[in-house]
Amino acid sequence: MAKDILGEAGLHFDELNKLRVLDPEVTQQTIELKEECKDFVDKIGQFQKIVGGLIELVDQLAKAAENEKMKVSG
């Protein structure tokens, strides 16, 4: 009964019986979103490394092509 009254007031107890302002369902959704965001950031970091390697490779190929042009012209 006390939990119902507190729940109506927007207060909830967690699994450790600590008083919380957020509904446990909202808290769980927040934790899941935080984990998804961390995974997303990690994937973006991996993507940036891959793209950086690709850019370096294309630059090297462009320099090699330019060197070959110079050899043919000269």
| Domain module count | 1
How large a portion of the residues is in β-strands, by DSSP E?
Answer: 5-15%
Kindly, what is the distance between the CA atoms of the first and last residues, rounded to a whole number of angstroms?
92 Å
- The SS-based structural class is mainly alpha
Helix content: over 70%
Provide the succession of SSEs: HEEH
Report Rg. 28 Å
Subcellular location: Cell projection, Cilium
InterPro entries: FT20
Keywords: Cell projection, Coiled coil
Pfam families: IFT20
How is the topology of this model organized?
Layout: H1 2-8, E1 12-13, E2 19-20, H2 24-73
Antiparallel strand pairs: 1-2
Describe the structure.
Pfam families: IFT20 (PF14931). The protein has 74 residues and is mainly α. It has one domain. The chain has 2 helices and 2 strands, in the order αββα. Strands 1-2 form a two-stranded antiparallel sheet. β1 and β2 form a beta hairpin. The mean pLDDT is 88.
Which terms would index this structure?
74 residues; mainly alpha; two-stranded antiparallel ribbon; 2 helices; coiled coil; Intraflagellar transport 20
Give a quick rundown of the structure.
It is found in: Cell projection, Cilium. This is Intraflagellar transport 20. With 74 residues, the chain is mainly alpha-helical.
